[in-house]
Specification:
It contains 24 helices and 33 strands. It folds into seven domains: 104 residues, PriA, 3(prime) DNA-binding domain (GIY-YIG endonuclease); 64 residues; 75 residues, Orthogonal Bundle (Arc Repressor Mutant, subunit A), CATH 1.10.10; 178 residues, 3-Layer(aba) Sandwich (Rossmann fold); 168 residues, P-loop containing nucleotide triphosphate hydrolases (Rossmann fold), CATH 3.40.50.300; 58 residues, no CATH class; 87 residues, Alpha-Beta Plaits, CATH 3.30.70.600. By secondary structure, it is an alpha/beta fold. Strand 14, helix 13 and strand 15 form a beta-alpha-beta unit. Helices cover 33% and strands 24% of the residues. It binds a DNA duplex (12 and 12 nucleotides) through strand 1, strand 2, strand 3 and helix 5.
Length: 804
DNA sequence: AGCACGCCGACT
DNA sequence: GTCGGCGTGCTC
């Protein structure tokens, strides 16, 4: 008898164990390790998805009272041993259940979709009065979702179970693969000689079209789609159909892959310059010096991408696979453009905006080894690339590489694990490396390659810092400084393109009463409301709730309710007022909701269809526009003073990246930074394009303030809708922690978060500094124990990206 | 997380 | 006697 040990689909730690099931004889041949199955679980024998982790032969009969596996859920092994190891690493490193880790390595779209169906067996008037659902079902099966829609509320399992036990209804669960492979019909010659005969002997003019089709197929004897035949022979589909009826053409269905990007780009190979070739050399040699992680610090425009392309080409020529991570969707169109242009169809693309079907197809092309290069966002680090030998993480400082949902993995850590698994090499690249990575490179943990010249010898843009306090003094109350307006005008006249950066969307960022000081806040969040012009509504950027615009102050009734603080919408309006002839594009969350909107705006601007691009940080990354000569940073101060140890680093990175959009072509670029803190050292390092001085300054601050990389931070977020309980238990836990960890760790808090309420949920935090990785699990257990059965949730994160 | 079991008080 | 509220323990 075969016994399968499985991990069940649960996110509950207490349930996360290995469970054994008997493999029914008829499934013995079909089931293997790394395949999903459906198992009955718990008292109700609820059907759960599970992954088979091992199979054993059992001669004894002591296992006879185990439950049986219901059915298989996959038709092939979907998690190979390498990926199982990877999931195991995730589970141990980041606190999560086995299945939460496994979900990362399977294409999420093939997670099974469940459909419960019920039917009526016996009518019962009393019960029908009590349970409304009984009035909506008949003697044939109907989907529970349909019934829920009809009665307008959820039906819980216990009700179903009760009615089932009483013999009133029957319940069945359908489990099916949610996504089916896309198929396409193809047509081919059944017998070439027969077709040849037909063509030669035909005298009938009305069959001329059929002969044309046959000649095409004789010439190129393979299967064609109907569209291909129509294009080649210039006929309609009726012609093909009649050939099928005559028995001259065969028809069959094949699986096709959906194509997420058109492949009409071409990116030719560029001769590498000396610095670039040296980078390739150092990286390829990194194996031999025993350190296979390399950090490339290359200024914007230094041609890091060419280095990546060279490395990938060399790797695939030797039969290896590669993964390239890019920060997020904003980078995808242009990066993919370059990679596809050079590497063609050998590359698969994975990112969050793919449809379920597209993602499934790409995943399978990779899994089956049909492609061996993957480019994608964070989760692409889990792509099951065959023979993986090279991982490139571009813009390595980007915070999007760290997941903010459980498991809170860091793609950089995962990458290090994967290359150690395969003895591969890892390349981190950035114009503004993260303080942590640069520190590691300086200390010899990583190899360091610095490319300090732009590849095409274009010079870095001149940066001017404008003191907005002076503007005020001179009577300019506008969002734009005099100089910025002048520069915009000049550049418009010269037909150059301009980018204006404003890291806030909406029209104005807060609404306030001049007479009583009232500030419009979200009902459910500790957040001021942003006014949006396009729908004339106030909106909360944290929960999405929208409000009507008040005409009078809700507090004192005064008419002097005013809008303060500018967002991208306002900038757009001001520009339209100042330069009515200029063509303006805006790129922010509001204008890019639709699929393909990013690409559209990007292409339009790149093709010169607009003069000015206004946008939030999504325009800061990667985008390569040759004709942009002016970049205006409307307000540099927004991110500078946030209570987060990374705010200086983030501001420097953002300004450097936005500045890097200027002067990438032949023309010299100029950057204007508007600020109320012109003496701030961070801004001045950015002005001088001086990452190394910035690093030296910031690393001292980190040391002084005892922040990473000198320590690790464990951030525990406590949330509850009950504020009093939250405060009470936060302090109670703190007392226990002080008793147990006083000598081991520095414990800060409890204190309310910067944003102390979101969606009616109050937020407090406790912060640990020190060797937190040693105590991570123990502290988790403590919180878990104390908060069990309390109305308080907690989440833990090491060196979080977001501490607000 | 569900669900069952069992102990105990309240109520026709 | 019996209903139901919730504390406890289990899930192959």
């Amino acid at each position: 008898m075969k016994i399968a040990s499985v991990a069940i689909n649960t996110n509950i730690k207490e349930l996360d164990k290995i469970y054994d099931y008997i493999v029914p004889v008829e499934l013995e041949e079909l089931i293997s390790r790394g395949m999903r199955v459906i198992v009955p679980f718990g008292n109700g024998n609820k059907k759960l998805e599970a992954v088979v982790l091992s199979l054993d032969e059992s001669e004894t009969y002591e296992n006879i009272n185990l439950k049986h596996i219901d059915e298989i859920a996959d038709y092939e092994i979907i998690i190979n041993d390498e990926m199982l190891d990877l999931a195991n690493y995730i589970k141990n490193k980041y606190i999560c259940t086995t299945y939460e880790a496994l979900k990362l390595v399977i294409p999420t779209t093939t997670i099974l979709k469940r459909d419960t169906q019920i039917k009526l067996i016996k009518r019962d008037k009393d019960l029908a009065n009590k349970y409304e659902l009984l009035n909506h079902i008949e003697e044939n099966f109907i989907s529970i979702k349909k019934v829920e829609n009809r009665i307008g509320k959820k039906i819980n399992n216990s009700t179903l179970l009760k009615l089932k036990k009483l013999g009133i209804i029957e319940v069945k669960e359908n489990i099916s693969n949610g996504i089916k492979a896309k198929t396409e019909k193809v047509y081919f010659l059944i017998n070439k000689d027969k077709a040849l005969d037909f063509v030669i002997n035909n005298k009938n003019k009305t069959l001329e079209k059929q002969c044309i089709v046959l000649r095409e197929l004789i010439k190129d004897d393979k299967a064609f789609t109907i569209k291909e035949i129509i294009d080649r022979a210039n006929v309609t589909k009726a012609v093909v159909k009649s050939l099928v009826e005559k028995g001259l053409l065969g028809e069959s269905t094949v699986e096709v892959y959906r194509n997420p990007f058109d492949r009409n780009y071409y990116h030719s190979k560029v001769e590498l310059n000396e610095e670039q070739s040296n980078a390739v050399k150092v990286i390829l040699e990194s194996h031999t010096n025993g350190n296979n992680v390399t950090l490339i610090h290359g200024v914007t425009g230094s041609g890091k991408t060419e280095v990546y392309l060279e490395l990938i080409e060399r790797m695939i020529n030797e039969g290896y696979g590669a993964i390239v991570l890019v920060p997020e969707i904003s980078l995808t169109p242009q990066t993919v453009e370059r990679f596809k242009g050079r590497l063609g169809d050998k590359i698969a693309v994975l990112h969050s905006r793919l449809s379920d079907g597209e993602r499934f197809d790409e995943w399978r092309r990779i899994y089956r080894g049909e492609v061996n290069i993957v480019i994608g966002a964070r989760s692409a680090i889990f792509a099951p690339v065959r023979n993986l030998k090279l991982i490139i993480i571009d813009e390595e400082h980007e915070h999007t590489y760290k997941s903010e949902i459980t498991p809170k993995y860091d793609a950089k850590d995962v990458a290090e694990f994967r290359i150690s698994q395969m003895d591969g090499i890892l390349v981190l690249g950035s114009a503004t490396p993260s303080i942590e990575s640069y520190y590691k490179a300086k200390n010899g943990q990583f190899n360091l390659v610095e490319i300090l010249n732009r590849a095409n010898n274009s010079i870095l843009p001149e940066v001017n810092i404008i003191d907005m306090r002076e503007e005020l003094k001179n009577g300019n109350r506008n969002i734009f400084s005099q100089q910025l307006v002048e520069e915009i005008r000049n550049n418009l006249e010269l037909k150059n393109q301009i980018i204006l950066f404003m890291n806030r969307r909406g029209y104005s960022t807060f609404v306030s009463c001049r007479s009583c000081g009232f500030v419009a806040k979200c009902r459910d969040c500790d957040v001021t409301l942003t006014y949006h012009y396009y729908n004339n509504r106030l909106s909360c950027h944290y929960c999405g709730r929208e409000y009507n615009v008040p005409n009078t102050c809700p507090k004192c009734g005064s008419k002097y309710i005013k809008y303060f603080g500018a967002g991208t919408e306002k900038i757009e309006e001001e520009i339209n007022n100042l330069f009515p002839a200029a063509k303006v594009l805006r790129m922010d969350m509001d204008t890019t909701r639709k699929k393909g909107a990013h690409e559209n705006i990007y292409k339009q601007f790149k093709n010169g269809e607009a003069d000015i691009l206004i946008g939030t940080q999504m325009i800061a990354k990667g985008m390569d526009f040759k004709n942009v000569t002016l970049v205006g940073i409307i307000s540099a101060d927004t991110s500078l003073n946030l209570p987060d140890y990374r705010s200086a680093e983030r501001t420097f990175q953002l300004i450097s990246q936005v500045s890097g959009r200027a002067g990438r072509g032949e023309k010299i670029g100029k950057v204007i930074i508007q600020t109320y803190e012109p003496d701030n050292p961070i801004l001045n390092f950015a002005k001088e394009h001086d990452f190394i001085s910035f690093y030296n300054y910031e690393i001292q601050m980190r040391r002084m303030m005892n922040n990473p990389p000198y320590t690790d931070i464990l951030y525990v977020l406590l949330t509850s809708s009950n504020e009093n309980e939250l405060i009470k238990f936060s302090h109670e836990i703190k007392n226990i922690l002080d008793r147990d960890y006083k000598n081991e760790l520095l414990i800060l808090g409890p204190s309310p978060c910067h944003i102390s309420k979101i969606k009616n949920t109050f937020r407090w935090n406790i912060i640990f500094k020190g060797d937190v990785k040693l105590y991570y699990n123990k502290i988790y257990e403590l919180f878990n124990y104390i908060l069990k059965n309390k109305p308080i949730a907690f989440s833990m994160d090491i060196n979080p990206v977001n501490m607000l």
